[in-house]
From TrEMBL, chain A:
There is a cross-link at G101 (Glycyl lysine isopeptide (Gly-Lys) (interchain with K-? in acceptor proteins)). Pathway: tRNA modification; 5-methoxycarbonylmethyl-2-thiouridine-tRNA biosynthesis. Acts as a sulfur carrier required for 2-thiolation of mcm(5)S(2)U at tRNA wobble positions of cytosolic tRNA(Lys), tRNA(Glu) and tRNA(Gln). Serves as sulfur donor in tRNA 2-thiolation reaction by being thiocarboxylated (-COSH) at its C-terminus by the MOCS3/UBA4 homolog. The sulfur is then transferred to tRNA to form 2-thiolation of mcm(5)S(2)U. Also acts as a ubiquitin-like protein (UBL) that is covalently conjugated via an isopeptide bond to lysine residues of target proteins. The gene is LOC117654010. This is Ubiquitin-related modifier 1 homolog. Keywords: Cytoplasm, Isopeptide bond, tRNA processing, Ubl conjugation pathway. Belongs to the URM1 family. The modification 1-thioglycine is found at G101.
From TrEMBL, chain B:
GO terms for molecular function: nucleotidyltransferase activity; sulfurtransferase activity; tRNA binding. This is Cytoplasmic tRNA 2-thiolation protein 2. Gene3D superfamilies: HUPs (3.40.50.620). GO terms for cellular component: cytosol. Keywords: Coiled coil, Cytoplasm, tRNA processing. GO terms for biological process: protein urmylation; tRNA wobble position uridine thiolation. Residues 172-209 form a coiled coil. InterPro entries: CTU2, Rossmann-like_a/b/a_fold. Pfam families: CTU2. Belongs to the CTU2/NCS2 family. Plays a central role in 2-thiolation of mcm(5)S(2)U at tRNA wobble positions of tRNA(Lys), tRNA(Glu) and tRNA(Gln). May act by forming a heterodimer with NCS6/CTU1 that ligates sulfur from thiocarboxylated URM1 onto the uridine of tRNAs at wobble position. Its main location: cytoplasm. HAMAP family: CTU2.
């Protein structure tokens, strides 16, 4: 066991394209003084995971409108959006609704 | 002062951005479980079970309310492998299963349209996509078909092929090249997207005819349609919009295009597919990974999505408004097919009133293209009598244009057979000859019909 925070990040609906076309990433977030929130996770993802075109995933400090975020299968809007405190073994799914028509 | 939003002191007030409602810790419907999704313009929080029931109900009620489905119907579902179309197949499958309360009685087939040639994929990639799609849909047991966009250029021969895990694609090189040439010749991404959409629709209609299906299901959600409304208006298709955004598109005489997901938002469909663990095959399309200002469609998408962040009712407002907008012109009464656009099959506005914005645009284009010295007294007379002006048969009829059937029609000939929106595609087309032979053939036929009509009109009573 490492002492970081273990989370599963999943991507769907085309969002995986920006992350090396891999749908599931198991990551360990480094230990930090402040608790991890979605806000800090997004910054971390931008620096560590995002392979190309960050503006297509992140806009300002939040995700681009049209990308849904699910924490353990629940809508992040019910959990406080950016301020949700991530817990160990959480599964966070980013799903894009922007493609197709 | 007339506006509802004005305050009494004359200052204007704007709609306020959404405020965060306080959440109850239980589902607002069954008050038993923890809520997992907020829907209905974020006013309601539902639990997983209630939400899935809600989606199912919306889907079934959309079909039921329309009163269009008959037990003998055979439906062709367009399946691209995306989350939305997969959710549609799943909903149909659930509705057809024995244990469902009021079972659907119609039959379902599905079709996958291979667009690989336009998207620049290799044959191996396209076959891989094809097989992935077959694997995805296998669990439902519907009879599957596939077709390729290039088949649209083939005037004879079958267009649909059975789809299974071992299906293979043979690229007909001449047709593929024709298709690729057409798309290379279109300059702007907006026109490319619009053309692809029209071609896809045409192909689906032809395929439905070949497979004897009376109805085609497309998986457009209300979010897609709101975006479509704004795009259509910007692309000059406003008068035809109600075909594109309502439940039923009846432009084709025999086959109706229905959109059973139109009461659901993209968010609801995405959550539905997550909860049912529906996988998807993601095939990047023309506008994927493009900047948001690369095409009008992308721009409207960005606009709607950005507004939705703070004003969750945007989609339903745009969508409900669009639904109510119909063309003022009388319903289609002409049975002759030379009265419809050759690209999108919309009815052409033939008898325009003397002052329309289309004519103003035409006039402005004419003046601009002539330059400062080209304008004289004859210029105006040629547009006022737009039909009679091109009397090419007046001279010696032997080598006149209307007899030489094999000539490829000029841009203006084709323009005359198109609606305003499709004319804009043609403006972005570098060479007319790359249009499909089927379209050119139709133009020739109509042109000779018209000239025949002109020549005999004096003898008619």
């Amino acid at each position: 066991m490492t002492d970081g925070l273990q989370v599963t990040l999943e991507f769907g609906g085309g969002a995986e394209l920006l992350f090396g076309n891999i749908k599931k990433h198991e990551v360990t977030l480094p230990v930090d003084d402040t608790p991890w929130t979605i806000r800090s996770l997004l910054t971390w993802m931008k620096d560590n995971l995002l392979k190309e075109r960050p503006e297509l995933f992140i806009q300002g400090d939040t995700v681009r409108p049209g990308i849904l975020v699910l924490v353990n299968d629940a809508d992040w809007e019910l959990l406080g959006e950016l301020d949700y405190k991530i817990e160990s073994k959480d599964t966070i799914l980013f799903i894009s609704t922007l493609h197709g028509g | 002062m007339c506006s509802r939003n004005d305050n009494e002191d004359g200052s204007e007030s704007y709609m306020e951005a959404k405020s965060k409602p306080l959440w109850s810790s239980t589902c607002q419907k069954c008050s038993g479980h923890n809520p997992v999704i907020q829907i209905l313009q974020i006013k309601h929080a539902y639990c997983k079970n209630c939400f899935v029931t809600h989606v199912n109900h919306k889907f079934r009620s959309t079909l039921g309310k329309s009163k269009m489905m008959r037990p003998s119907d055979v439906v062709l579902a367009a399946f691209s492998g995306s989350l939305k179309s997969h959710a549609m197949l799943h909903l149909l499958h659930a509705g057809l299963s024995e244990k469902s309360h009021k079972r659907f009685l119609f039959k379902v087939q599905f079709i996958y349209v291979d667009e690989g040639a336009v998207l620049g994929l290799s044959l191996a990639e396209r076959i891989a996509n094809l097989r992935a799609i077959a694997t995805l849909a296998e669990q439902y047991g519907f009879s599957g078909h596939f077709t390729s966009l290039a088949c649209l250029f083939d005037s004879s021969g079958p267009r649909c092929f059975p789809l299974n895990k071992n299906s293979s694609l043979t690229a007909e090189n001449s047709l593929e090249n024709e298709l690729q040439l057409l798309f290379q010749n279109i300059v702007s991404l907006t026109a490319k997207e619009d053309m692809l959409k029209q071609l896809r629709k045409q192909l689906l209609l032809l395929a439905a005819k070949e497979l004897c299906c009376g109805k085609v299901f497309m998986a457009h959600t209300s979010t897609d349609l709101a975006i479509q409304i704004l795009t259509d208006v910007s692309l000059g298709r406003g008068s035809l919009m109600h075909h594109d955004v309502t439940f039923c598109d009846f432009r084709d005489k025999d086959i109706k295009i229905l959109r059973p997901l139109l009461e659901l938002s993209s968010k609801e469909v995405a959550f539905y597919s997550v909860y049912h663990k529906l996988d998807n095959v993601f095939i990047p399309s023309l506008c994927t990974k493009m900047a948001s200002d690369s095409s009008i469609h992308n721009l409207s998408k960005q606009f709607v999505m950005d507004l939705m962040e703070n004003f969750p009712s945007t989609v339903s407002t745009v969508f409900r408004t669009g639904e109510k907008l119909g063309s003022t012109s009388s319903p289609d009464n002409s049975e002759e097919d030379d009265n419809s656009c050759i690209i999108c099959q919309a009815r052409l506005e033939v008898n325009l009133s003397p002052c329309t914005s289309a004519q103003a645009t035409e006039f402005s284009r004419l003046i601009s293209s002539l330059g400062p010295l080209g304008f004289d007294s004859k210029t105006l007379s040629s547009i006022s009598g737009s039909n009679g002006a091109e009397s090419c048969c007046s001279g010696s009829a032997s080598n006149c244009c209307c007899n030489s059937n094999q000539d490829s029609p000029s841009l203006s000939d084709i323009m005359e057979c198109c609606c305003y929106g499709c004319r804009l595609i043609l403006h972005d087309l570098k060479s007319v000859s790359s249009l499909s032979e089927r379209i050119l053939e139709q133009v020739r036929r109509r042109k000779s019909l018209n000239s025949m009509r002109d020549s005999i009109k004096d003898f008619l009573l």
